[in-house]
Amino acid sequence: MTTTAVRKDGPAAVTPPPTVGRHARNYISRVRGGDVGALPAVLGLIVLCTVFAVMRPSSFLSAGNFANLFTQGAAVTLIAMGLVFVLLLGEIDLSAGFASGVCAAVLANVVTVLGYPWWVAVLAAIATGLVIGTTLGMLVAKVGIPSFVVTLAGFLAFQGIVLLLVKEGTNISVRDNVLVAIANRNLSPALGWAFAILAVAGYAAVQLLRHRNRVARGLITDPIAVVALRIAGLAVILGTAVYVLNLERSRNVLISSLKGVPIVVPIIAVLLVVWTFVLQRTSYGRHIYAVGGNREAARRAGIGVDRIRISVFMICSSMAAVGGIVAASRANSVDPNTGGSNVLLYAVGAAVIGGTSLFGGKGRVLDAILGGAVVAVIENGMGLMGYSAGVKYVVTGVVLLLAASVDALSRRRAAATGTR
Amino acid sequence: MSATPLLELRGIDKSFGPVQVLRDVALTVHPGEVTALVGDNGAGKSTLVKCISGIYPTDAGEVLFNGEQVHIGSPRDAAALGIEVVYQDLALCDNLDIVQNMFLGREKHSGIVLDEPTMEQLAAETLAGLSIRTVTSLRQHVSSLSGGQRQTVAIAKAVLWNSKLVILDEPTAALGVAQTAQVLELVRRLADNGLAVVLISHNMNDVFAVSDRIAALYLGQMVAQVKTTDITHAQVVELITAGRSGGLGLATDPGGNGDGPQAADSISGGVR
Ligand SMILES: Nc1ncnc2c1ncn2[C@@H]1O[C@H](COP(=O)(O)OP(=O)(O)OP(=O)(O)O)[C@@H](O)[C@H]1O
Ligand SMILES: [Mg+2]
């Protein structure tokens, strides 16, 4: 496929009419060539859900459990979304888990101990994340210490800071209504539908406008049928999710009603849209990919490599702060273990399982969400089947290793076949 | 051949600590011509290019661009003048596609949003203008291209910016016969389109195939700059390896460049 001349003279080249068949064949050849993208995560999710649905049909498939998946997985997913940026440069942030703990502890101190309003606490937590990220980024980019070492040191030190902030052995409760609502309350059913419709309409508008613009300029486009299929796919997924989440899931409706989309879901969705926009549609995002792909080439192209490297750590730690806020909200408190134990590994796992490469240059924010869903389903489903925490850790570890192998193997395959 | 050279270097010196890599180098480059820069390994060719492109500051000497004295302090200054360099090790990102690579660091926007359609159109126009027909899709990742195609993209990237001077550091070093011919043809076309081209190469066949002038560096000194038609293969090889050949070069300076006897002394004085 390499040396045939398709492009004729002139900019508005004569392009082969896009067909669904050609599109599908292109996709298959990309996957064969090692560009598997989100495929493993999606397949894994389907397999896992099928297994758990068969083994525990009543509990796993209930609307209540479906809602649980979101609130359980939210904190890890948010941290993973930030980690994607660091991974895109081929760096790592091992401190993201405890950074989220530190930020949560700051939040709890500001709102509970000092008695400030919730938004002051949220700003303080995110500012803490920014400071942490700037420090890590400076040490990596300006001093030149490998990120593995810098953030390993951070991992230890932040663990200590959490202990100091919450006074060993105790915890700080978080009772503020708004903060508690984030991970524990739901949108009203009507608002849930409005949100879903807005999301699909927005996506459709963006996709169709881009398609029209490219056709008008005579550029190669995806066939309109594929565009329509994508929009329809999103509509079906969101519609089903909102429908199920809007089902009554209270055990006793007379005492209290429990239904609607958990509030964390739109929070994650908005952050997904914002960060995806930044990565795919701005120069800054393009430069992140460039630095991750070939740092020297980026430098010669006049890109401020150090600035990019520092900024991704800032994004990562601030997203960790958001994850910490959600974790504090869900637990109604912050204790010395917030952001600890498996949080970091689950977050790295989520990003990698979703298809973000550990070698840099390849990944999307959406990967964190797909991978986060896989991690949440494993954790949730195995819990329902009565396995101990030990077994869950082992299984998650194996899944992470599988994902990393897929990453490494697809890279080798891409190198061998020349595609990516 | 035009009257004023596009680029003229005079008396360029460059040292890295105690090691003097360039001494009193003079070079003239004319628009519409390919100037081949030849010299042995370590002669200072890449260093000279990096001085011209603003990566290294020079210790002494002056640079005239279009007859006016200029100071090139950074790659940005060079780019602003219209000087583009295609480096020995390609400066392309494997994980980006052709369009993304061609516009890297100089993306087109509408508002804060990347203007992909415009970039894609401009890239297509540039490739068409160079009669490049070897890439199937502008949206394929650079990692999927052959060495010659990658070099082609790198060169196209250099001419995208209304550049006046394109410097190519060993563009064919890693290529096979067919792809070398392809790239040389492209180099020739750049000059025929009116650009000034500096081509660094170790391959005498390539040099004689495309160049209008040959400039020879020997241990950091410009020992000769002559028309390609006025010199033979053997003479160029002698210039490269010994710094002199008959009437050309160090010992018996014909007055072609001003650094005759003293330079010869300093050589016999035992550099290296
Ligand atoms: N950054 C540097 N620091 C110190 N010495 C350098 C540096 N860059 C180059 N040199 C020295 O300068 C001399 C010229 O190097 P340069 O790379 O310009 O040679 P070249 O003519 O391009 O050789 P080649 O044909 O092998 O590419 C060499 O002796 C090299 O060791
Ligand atoms: Mg060199």
Throw out a few tags for this protein:
heterodimer; A: 420 residues; mainly alpha; ABC transporter involved in vitamin B12 uptake, BtuC; two-stranded antiparallel sheet; 17 helices; 2 strands; 72% helix; 1% strand; globular; disordered N terminus; B: 272 residues; alpha/beta; Rossmann fold; 6-stranded mixed β-sheet; 4-stranded antiparallel β-sheet; 9 helices; 14 strands; 32% helix; disordered C terminus; binds adenosine-5'-triphosphate; binds magnesium ion
Task: Tell me about this structure.
The complex is a heterodimer of chains A (420) and B (272). Chain A has 420 residues and is an all-alpha fold. Chain A has a single domain, classed as ABC transporter involved in vitamin B12 uptake, BtuC (Orthogonal Bundle). In chain A, 72% of the residues lie in helices and 1% in strands. Chain A has 17 helices and two strands. Chain A has helices at residues 20-32, 39-55, 57-60, 63-88, 96-113, 118-143, 147-165, 177-184, 189-216, 224-245, 264-281, 283-293, 295-300, 305-331, 343-353, 365-384, 389-417; strands spanning 172-173, 333-334. A two-stranded antiparallel sheet of chain A has the order 1-2. In chain A, α4 (63-88) packs across α16, α5 (96-113) packs across α14 and α11 crosses α12. With 272 residues, chain B is α/β, with parallel strands linked by helices. Chain B has a domain at 1-82 and 165-171 and 195-272: Rossmann fold (3-Layer(aba) Sandwich). Chain B has nine helices and 14 strands. Chain B has helices at residues 45-52, 75-81, 98-102, 116-129, 147-159, 177-192, 204-210, 233-242, 261-268, and strands at 7-16, 19-29, 34-39, 60-65, 68-70, 83-86, 109-110, 113-114, 165-169, 196-200, 213-218, 221-227, 244-245, 248-249. A six-stranded mixed sheet of chain B has the order 6-9-10-3-11-12, sandwiched between helices. Chain B has a four-stranded antiparallel sheet with strand order 2-1-4-5, with helices on one face. In chain B, a hairpin with a 2-residue loop joins β1 and β2 (19-29). In chain B, α5 runs parallel beside α6 (177-192). The radius of gyration of chain B is 19 Å and the shape is globular. Classes of the chains: A mainly alpha (420), B alpha/beta (272). The interface between A and B is large, with 40 and 41 residues. Adenosine-5'-triphosphate binds next to β2 and α1 of chain B.
